[in-house]
Amino acid sequence: MTTEPSRRRRPPRLRDVADLAGVSMKTVSNVVHGHPHVRPETRRRVQAAIDETGYRPQLAAQHLRTGSSGIVTLAVPSLTFGYFSDIAQHFIDRARELDRTVLLHTTSDGREQELEVFTGFKRRLGDGVIFNPLLIEEEIFSRYEEFPQPTVLIGEHVPDGALPRNADYVRIDNVRASADATSHLLATGRRRLAFVGALPPGPAPHPHGSAALRMTGFGQALDRHGIDPGTAPAPEVANWHRTDGRRAAHLLCAEHPEVDGIVCGNDELALGVLAGLRDRGRRVPQEVAVVGYDDSPDAPFAYPSLSSISPDKTFIARLALDMLAERIGGYEGPPRMVTAPHQLIVRDSTAAAD
Amino acid sequence: MTTEPSRRRRPPRLRDVADLAGVSMKTVSNVVHGHPHVRPETRRRVQAAIDETGYRPQLAAQHLRTGSSGIVTLAVPSLTFGYFSDIAQHFIDRARELDRTVLLHTTSDGREQELEVFTGFKRRLGDGVIFNPLLIEEEIFSRYEEFPQPTVLIGEHVPDGALPRNADYVRIDNVRASADATSHLLATGRRRLAFVGALPPGPAPHPHGSAALRMTGFGQALDRHGIDPGTAPAPEVANWHRTDGRRAAHLLCAEHPEVDGIVCGNDELALGVLAGLRDRGRRVPQEVAVVGYDDSPDAPFAYPSLSSISPDKTFIARLALDMLAERIGGYEGPPRMVTAPHQLIVRDSTAAAD
DNA sequence: CGGCCGGGTTCCAACGTTGTACTCAACCCA
DNA sequence: TGGGTTGAGTACAACGTTGGAACCCGGCCG
């Protein structure tokens, strides 16, 4: 509103506004916060002074005084995965509705970064945290019965022990979802299935805990149809990016040309697989069907459009943030565990072979 | 490191650590900050006390005392665009290297949100801001000669007036880049070009200021080749998402079947256009060539792989953040304006027609 | 007409941290 | 031996805000 840029070096404080309006600091504070017991006339005068000085409260001081900042930390592995950037946007939107601000971190660099997020960093900041522990889940469950800050975990296991008293858990049933995807391929008549997404075993667990679970689901579904999971090819991939999928597809074409259906660990891999099959002249879905996981925004625009497991991102973001907000707001009840719904979106890549 | 969860309601303060170690608060502070003049023995004792209590400094207090928080605000239109989530990740990475934290905002909801980011929100927070004003650029340039906080703008115009004294500008030469893309199509022999990305005129300017500029570049290139830009079809799109591109492609096929090259406002549109052409049985690149803009991570995996203008995101993120860090660190020099480099990545979608 | 009530406001302290000024001891060279 | 320097540590105030106690004043009831 002010047209004249402040010439002062330091931004205006409550004090400055108070002096200008001829009232006490507290009265200004009351006006700022819409406290009811202020005479209209006073309110008007104070508001004018606020406008004139361009005053805005300083969060640091409020935070120090009141003990809460309105900031929530969100940590995802990496925004370069469409799934995570998508879900991050959902979180940001919901946070705005709740009048909170999102501090975004990415943890793809591993254990250290996860621990950092979990413990609240070198510095204490933000009122709580939402994140998906990929590497440190075991560790933190066994170590704490109360987490260092209000926490909502997004995870894939049913945790073994009890949840810490100040945490909630949004669970995504990877095993079941992946089995659904696999059953779908079986239902369309494919029998020689492969799984793309297995990770090389290593001393350090890999940043994609989902890999094992999704593969388990794949195996379970085969089992249920009387197929020995041990016979299904599952080429190892170094990571879960498109390139890895493409490479895996090339490999499958060379070593297992009989494969007629591919279940992928995520959509990125699946898109890479589609490209790889194209490179080798294999037709999808006529010769090979492909199903992904995440329902990333690319899926409907792939060629052919990609069938995929679609976790309900809006649900996840909304629920996680709401539960965290309740914790921050003082909710002291028992830890909650909710399983997020998912559905299989069928598109062209798994149409019945003709 | 501590195995026993803190039972105290309030987190440990400097004071608690100091008492436990039998030194003054300031000495603890010195240890925390690696101040040199502390006896090794004392340092050890203090460190032990820190470990035992699980102390972490509280950012709010540090911020209040020192006037800086180590947080920078980054605002992008929306993470659902691959380009922006990609660039956001670059920012986050660079910020970590500089030991800063990113507060992420999205401004796709328009003017209000942009103003909010620009002025520093309802609350003053963060040491500075990086963002791309789409709607309010004019407004803020005419209004301020000094911005309310250290600011780095990412933009597309050469601003008319002088830059405010405490801002820097990273410029992306949309006109030139778009002309490059267009010239490329012309060089491969296409003559009946169309532009997909024009926005409906409206009283309120639209969230994609780039639209006009990229279209201008398109026109300039045509002009240089002796083609009247007025004759080139440019169907309007409601937004810059894939769906809009698909719809535009359908329209072009129906009304301008002679078109043999399409320049798109961004990759999302281009991917939609590829899908739309596929829907109508038009072959790319044999019958129609398509070029995008942004070099989103999808481009190389599209079918056919998509040629695209690739702005140097690493350069942009690094430079913008470094300049902001300098400003925050006290740099008082004149405003700087840097043009970010771009290149055209040629892939299958613009291979010469055979 | 005095005491009470409560709306409107002021005053004060405290949140946790760090910069400045200060103290005290040990050490060094003239 | 003494003045000055350096190293190690302490005490205190201040950053901007808000909750609570205290205060003032006009109106109402007894």
From TrEMBL, chains A, B:
InterPro entries: HTH_LacI, LacI/GalR-like_sensor, Lambda_DNA-bd_dom_sf, Peripla_BP_I. Keywords: DNA-binding, Transcription, Transcription regulation. PROSITE patterns: HTH_LACI_1, HTH_LACI_2. Residues 12-66 form the HTH lacI-type domain. One of its GO terms (molecular function) is DNA-binding transcription factor activity. The keyword Transcription regulation applies. The keyword Kinase does not apply. This is LacI family transcriptional regulator. It comes from Candidatus Brachybacterium intestinipullorum. The lineage of its organism: Bacteria, Bacillati, Actinomycetota, Actinomycetes, Micrococcales.
